[in-house]
Amino acid sequence: MAKRLISAAIAIPLGILVLYIDNVYVLTALISVLSALATYEIFVATKYLKNIPVTIVSLAFVAFVPFAFVLQPVREKIPYMCVGFLFTLFIIMIFMHEKVKFEQVALVAFISVCIPLAMGSLVFTRITFYEHGIFYIVFILVSAWIGDAGAYFIGTFFGKHKMAPTISPKKSWEGFFGGIVTSGIFGILMGFAYQWIDYLTTGTHHFAVNIWFMFVISLICSVLGVVGDFSASILKRQCMVKDFGHILPGHGGVLDRFDSVLFVAPFVYLVLKIYQPVTAII
Questions:
Q1: Would you write out the chain's pLDDT as a tens digit for each of its 282 residues?
Q2: Which of 89, 212, 260, 277 could form a disulfide with 228 if both were Cys (CB 3.0 to 4.6 A apart)?
């Protein structure tokens, strides 16, 4: 617990600083580093890191994808980049077929595309919904992590019925529903807080937040966070590792902390493309 609190004491101010700077390239650089670290951790866990050419090509692709979202001329060429990346992997497999197997190339390709696209949803959210982008990013992260924290604490004190003991022995149904309720409450609080901050800083109300929409989306995000957590747990069990890394004491690796965000971020971005809960007051 102490290690978790220390990590949070360091990571939270750093995240606040990045958001406060409010520069899309700073945010993109952070997402790029986190995506590359998460991908690297999977390669280590699956023992695919031994193939140097595959590792270099994959990590370079993963690190560049978030920047491709920001650069308009490059953004339109992302499909071509993906095709070129896959083509390069197959060329490596052809020349190193005795060491590089198809299942390795398939996993590397899947991970190297999915992680930066999922994490890059945060960048997409920022540049697409510029005026309220920071609020949406905070909402995504809080929805994923608060639900996880609520499930952890409620499950620790009240958990009796295990959800999936062969996948994650410590997770309980009590914790699962406790996490959902916690996310819902924080979704409502965030909606009210955003309006309150607007009033305090400007002296008037410039926008309104659909509180009930925030509540419902928070509930769904909590469930998606659990799906992401279980997916990571299955991979760790199959690779026979406890954590993906040790860069975050008390939490593990980057992927241990962002596994739930990988599902929540793309979902919220797609929902916001259909309906935005923050609307201007005319």
A1: 544 544 444 455 566 666 666 788 888 999 999 999 999 988 888 877 677 888 899 999 999 999 988 887 788 888 888 899 999 998 988 888 777 788 888 888 999 999 999 999 999 898 888 788 889 998 998 888 888 888 888 877 887 778 777 777 778 888 888 889 999 999 999 999 988 988 888 778 788 899 999 999 999 999 998 888 888 888 888 887 777 777 766 567 888 888 889 999 999 999 999 998 988 776
A2: 260
Instruction: Tell me which amino acid residue 80 is.
Output: Y
d(CA 220, CA 225): 9
- The DSSP secondary structure of 133-184, one letter per residue, reads HHHHHHHHHHHHHHHHHHHHHHHHHH--SEEETTTEEEEEHHHHHHHHHHHH
- R_g over Cα of the chain: 20
Six-digit token pair at 171? 């997770």
